[in-house]
Amino acid sequence: NRMNYDIETKNSNPGSEIPKPPPIKQQENFISSEDILKKCSNLSDLCESLKKFNGSNLKKTASQIVFSDGNPKAKIMLIGEAPGADEDRLGKPFVGVSGQLLDKMLDSINLNREKAYLTNIVPWRPPGNRTPTDYEIALFRPFLLKHIELVNPKIIVAVGGSAAKALLNINDGILRHRGLWKKLVVNEKLKIDIIATLHPAYLLRSPSQKKLAWEDLKLIRDKLKEL
Ligand code: URA
Question: How far is the CA of 189 from the centre of ligand 1 (A)?
Answer without folding.
Answer: 29
